[in-house]
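For the sake of clarity, the format in which proteins appear in this thesis is described at this point. The record quoted next illustrates the convention:

___
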Amino acid sequence: MAARKSGFFVGAVAGAGVACAALAGVGMRMAPAGAAEPAQVIRTSGAPAPMFAPPPGAPMSFADIFEQVSPAVVQIDVTSKAAAAPRLRIPGLEGFDIVPKGQKGEDGEEAPGPKQQSSGSGFFISADGYLVTNNHVVADADDDGINVVLKDGRELKATIVGRDEGTDLAVLKVVDPKAKGAAFPFVNFENQAKPRVGDWVITIGNPFGLGGTATAGIISAYNRDLGDSSSTFVDYIQIDAPINRGNSGGPSFDIYGRVIGVNTAIFSPTGGSVGIGFAIPADVAEATAKQLISGGKVVRGYIGAQIQPFTKEMADAQGLGDVKGAIVADLVAGGPAQKGGLMPEDVITAVNGVEIKNSSELTREVAKGRPGDTLKLSVLRGGKPRMIEIKSGVRPTEKELSLNDDDGEEGGADAPAKPQVQKSEALGMTLVPIDEAARRTYSIDPAVKGVLIDGVKANSDAGEKGLRKGDVLTSVNGDPVSSAAQVSSAVEAAKKLQRPSVNLRIVRAGRPTIVPLKIAP
C-alpha cells in the first residue's frame, strides 16, 4: 500500500499477519458500588427484549442491510510482479545487469521474476459480471492475475475492462468459464438522495485479507481534498466507519442498501484505521464506470492552460474584492485556449454558466466537456468581464501530464503536434527508428545501426530480462535489423519454424550482449 500524501494511505495490500482476539458472547453487568446484589451475566443472544433503546433514528441492527447487499461484495486477489531483486554488475560489462546465479533455470535461461500477492475489495454492478474497484488495486496486475472470491466461496477469474487514474477507479469483468451464464447479485449506485453529514453508513470489504467484513459509522464530511491527482476530479466523502488495508474498492452503503461511495483511502499515522476514511461519491463512480464499460477509458475535455487558484491576495491586488475563480498562469502554445483567445493572467470565474471558486472546480467543469464541445468561459481581464469561447480538446492521461510537468494546469493540451514517431510493438517492446535526438539522448555511437527500444512492458519476458528504454536492438537470430518491420518479420519466421524464442543482440552504452526472448504463442 502506497502513501498518497503524509498520513494518507490507499488500502489495496493485505497485511502480512493479523492478530486476533476472541471474546465470549456474553456481557457482564456489575452491580453498583456498595450493593449486595451480585453481578449478573447477560447473554447477547436469545434475550427476550433489547437491553437498551437506541437513540432516535438509529437502527437496532445493520444485519438486514448486510444480508441484503453483502453477496454483491467480493474479495479481489491480485498477482503482480514484485520489485526486482538486487542484480550484480561485473567489471568490464558496465551497463548490463547480471542476474544472480540462483535465479537461473536449469536450461541457463533467466527465471521469471518474483511475484507478489495483494488483496482489495470490489462489488458487482450488473448481473452479467461487471465489477467496480479501485485502480490502485489492479493497476499492476499480471495478465490472468486477478481472482475474484465471492461470498459463497467461489473463486473466479476476472479481466480489466478499463482503468482511470484520474478518479482511481477500475471496472473488471468476470470471464471465468465456470461462471458462463451466471447471474451475479449486484447493487445500485445512489446519486439522487444524497445522505446528510451525520447519517449512518455501512462499509463492507476485505480488510487485511480477512474476507467479507462489515463496519458502520456516519458520514463525517463532504468535499474532502486528499492533495493528490485524484482530488482533481473527486470531492471525497469522509466517513468514520472503520476501513483498513484491503478495504480499497469496497462499497459504502446507506441504510437502504444503496451504494453511496467507493472506499479508497484512509488518513492514518500508523497505516491502520483511526476512524478517518474517504470514499469516491456514487455519482462520480457511476459516471466513470459507464464510460469504462462503454469505451474502456474515460475521455475528458481540456483547454490547454496552466492555472492556479485566484487567492484573496491576488483579488485585492487587482481591486476585485471577493471575486473567486482560477487565474491563468500560462498557455500551451497552439492549444485550444490560446486559439480561443484566452490570455495569461485572465481570471476565469465560470464555465458554461457554472460558477467556479478555485482551480480544481475549473478543471472538473472543463473535464465534463466532450472533445469538440464549445466551452463558454466567463473571464475577467484587467478587471473587465468578457466571454471567451473555446473548442474543447482531449485531456492527456495523468501520466502524460506528469511527464510534461504541467503542475496545476486544467488538463494537458492540444499542444501543436510534435513530429510523430512511428512506433511498433514486438515481444513486449515498443520499437522506434534511431534519430539524431535519440543518439544524443542515449549516447548511441553513429556506427551502431538498428532500432531503438522506446519502452518495455514490465510483465513481458523482455521486461523480466532487464531490457529497457534506450537499448538498441541490432539483430534478431543473427540477421541485422534496421526497422521494426524487420524485427516482426524475423519473429514470424521463427514462429513458422516453431522456435520458442529468438536471440536478440542488444547494445547498451556501447556494449553488446545476446538476450534470448520467448515468443508468445
